[in-house]
């Protein structure tokens, strides 16, 4: 008869142990909530951190090139599109007029430089498809390269684009 009593005692100790675990979990949850702010006011710090993490990395803008406008010179394109980085050497851009920085690049030839600019290279994004035509971009390449010691001829407008 001792065997049934051991099972009964064992069952009540299991029940007590289970109730103790449930009470402990409830007490832990209550203690955690004591430190939390009451109400539904969101934390501005976490909202600000979330907003900063969700900032867009970049954007794409499609623009149309006005066909009726006069073609921009290399200098005009440089000032509008290139000077922001090349005037100060931002992100490793060779500085405008610095022959030491431009020397190795000039050896690649004019067409290779134009292709690098049109399609992008390193930190420089592709310049093709923006507000300037590829021809105007090539004029800017000649302008910038020549300021750095190059001897490239300024590209002339194709007959179809001349007005």
UniProtKB/TrEMBL annotation:
A GO molecular function held by the record: heme binding
InterPro entries linked: Cyt_c-like_dom, Cyt_c-like_dom_sf, Cyt_CIE
Keywords: Electron transport, Heme, Iron, Metal-binding, Transport
Signal peptide: none
Any Pfam family matching the protein: Cytochrome_CBB3
Domain Cytochrome c: 69-148
Keyword Iron: yes
Listed transmembrane segments: none
Keyword Metal-binding: yes
PANTHER family to which the protein is assigned, alphabetical: CYTOCHROME C5, PTHR40942
Name the record gives this protein: Cytochrome c5 family protein
Organism expressing this protein natively: Comamonas denitrificans
């Amino acid at each position: 008869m001792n065997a049934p009593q051991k099972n009964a005692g064992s069952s009540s100790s299991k029940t007590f142990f289970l109730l103790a675990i449930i009470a402990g979990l409830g007490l832990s949850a209550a203690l955690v909530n004591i430190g939390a702010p009451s109400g539904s006011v969101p934390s501005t710090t976490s909202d600000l951190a979330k907003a900063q993490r969700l900032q867009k990395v970049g954007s794409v803008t499609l623009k149309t090139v006005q066909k009726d406008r006069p073609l921009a010179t290399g200098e005009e394109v440089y000032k509008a599109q290139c000077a922001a980085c090349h005037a100060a050497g931002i992100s490793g851009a060779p500085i405008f007029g610095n022959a030491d920085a431009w020397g190795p690049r000039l050896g690649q030839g004019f067409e290779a430089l134009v292709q690098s600019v049109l399609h992008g290279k390193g930190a420089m994004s592709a310049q093709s498809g923006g507000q300037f035509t590829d021809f105007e971009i090539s004029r800017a390449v000649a302008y910038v390269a020549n300021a750095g010691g190059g001897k490239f001829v300024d590209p002339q407008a194709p007959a179809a684009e001349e007005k």
